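Sample intake sheet
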Amino acid sequence: MTTLAAAVAEAKSRFSEAGLPDAAIESRLLVGGLLALTSTEVFTGGERVLTDAELVRIAKAVERRLKREPVHRILGSREFHGMDLKISKETLEPRPDTEVLVDCLLPYVRQIVAVKGAARILDLGTGTGAIALALLKEVPEAYGTGSDISEDALKTAAENAARLGLTERFATLTSHWFDKIQVRFDIIVSNPPYIRSDVIPALEPEVRDFDPPAALDGGPDGLEAYRAIAAGAGDFLEKDGVIGVEIGFDQRQAVTGIFRSVGFTLAQARRDYGDNDRVLVFTRSDL
């Protein structure tokens, strides 16, 4: 008989032997996730005897992690801003630093709602829908559109909206940046690909081999997406609207310059939990 505690300990041992960081945390997270247990239940239910089927599932998942597949991809979902979001092959795994972008934009969304009674949000390259859905969750008067070039991502975003009861306020649209956008929005937000092409081969395997390349590769200088967003945003942003983007740790000056060159003003900059530049918010310069 194998207990829950023994299965967690075995996973931890194998992760440690393989040199994986955070072996203790990841072993509890993986086993608990597979068995639909909370972290507290994993701690307190160590004497539970596991079934043969459960042991097989755990063994297969451990082997996948040893091949550097991230825990949350193995589990198929990840928590983001208080939501349990499904992730899929062509979606970026939402990360805590992106919550900074959500929290930075929430006051702007609420201010627009206070004036207009509602707010329209466009999430460019929506992926799982994480950013737009988090804003909609927090502001009931907000409506969102998530655009992406990936049908897999759009399907995943729609499924997440349904799981969260947000389907009536969230729509998806196949579009390469603004190609298929036809109306104006109060908020335009994006966590675009911003890693330089030549850096990608050196990324950790968990990112390089499992996150979708289209969500990572920002071109030779990492700035291609920002140029496209800045060039098109003026035609689709309400005059009192704002644009919020996530950036790489060393891109604040370059991205600010790109937006300023087409008539936007930097309204706010925010650092992430690691004290790196992470979020920029722009308004129109002609206000």
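Comment: The chain has a mean pLDDT of 96. The domain at 79-284 is CATH 3.40.50.150 (Rossmann fold).
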